[in-house]
Specification:
By secondary structure, the chain is an alpha+beta fold. The chain has helices spanning 12-19, 28-73, 80-122, 132-180, 187-258, 264-278, 282-293; strands at 125-126, 130-131, 329-338, 357-362, 369-373, 379-383, 387-389. The strands form 2 sheets. A 5-stranded antiparallel sheet has the order 6-5-4-3-7, with no helix packed on it. It has a two-stranded antiparallel sheet with strand order 1-2. The longest helix has 72 residues, at 187-258.
Length: 391
Amino acid sequence: MDANETGPPKDPLEDVNKLSFWMPGNYQRTVQRTPDSFQACNDIVTCFQERARVEKQYAQQLSQWSSKWKNITETRPLYGSLMRAWQCFFTSAERLSALHSNISQSLVAEEGDRVRTWQKDTFPRKMFYGFREAHDLETEFSRAQKPWAKKLKKLDQARAAYHKASQREQAASEREKAAKDNSALSEQKLNKIVKATESAGEDKEKARGKYEKVLEDVTSYAPKYMEEMEAIFDKSQEEERKRISFLKQAFLSIHRHLDVTNNESVKAVYSELHHTLMSISEPDDLRWWKNNHGPGMPTDWPRLEEWIPPLHKPKRGKKPKRGLEERTVMIGGVKVRALFDYVGEEEDELSFKAGEQFLKIEEEDGQGWCRGMKEGGVEGFYPANYVEIVD
């Protein structure tokens, strides 16, 4: 036999009445709402702590991806605006990584702590009784419902007595009918059965009267009972309203952290990335390659090069020192450009590369040497015929 067929079908109204708030003990669902709300706060904090870990892991993955491919692109043959566009993806990823790392920290440090603090303030505990709010509701509901529960119990007893009396009266009526149809039954026995039926009818009416009286008492007490229960329920509703309002604001705050679509930093990242991508220029990249690796590169084409006699200079240690009166110092100096590379052989000589510019600060001496000064204030001698004056 199917489990659903083990008993007669239940009256839907009976089930509804059993679940009704007004029935004894059913206020427990409202009382339980307080610890359930407390647990919901724990679940919310745990939920978004996990989301914070997801954000943190995503930030780390973005950073790792960016570092890996940034190094790889430096060894690849792309160049110019195309290379800048590719590398812009990595710069954007680093900025997004920082953003999602901040989201992770905000979910834990701001939102998690905010809910925890509110939870502690909203759900004070009572020694040995759990949450104070739940204990107070339980006490008030129980006190308000106690008289009602007694009256309902009395009503159930009166109803049961009336139904039982009705059942007995019906059974007596059926016996009377059967006796009248039995011609063999004596008059004495028939009269006894008739009197039993009349007695059962009287008992039924008495039970009905008592039932109606108890029902009237219950009905008259119902408004007071409802008023008291609704007043307590409204207090519970107000506390729940505050909780819903707070959690709504908490969810909206979490949404503001997570909704990167309205984040100005994210918009700037993708706006700059899009601008860089749109700046990819085929002509510019092709021109860069031509000038750096193609026919646009500068070249010293073959030309007649005059022979320059080697310069014989005396050892600097043997060169007599000149006094200040012998030195022709140039005020401000004259800018010169090196024609050839020169490596100084002694500490008081300058070294330079062909094309390098510096200042001549003393005129050429009789042995073909000038004194010059490079950037940074480095001074020294150099062969006069290794440079030319810059116009």
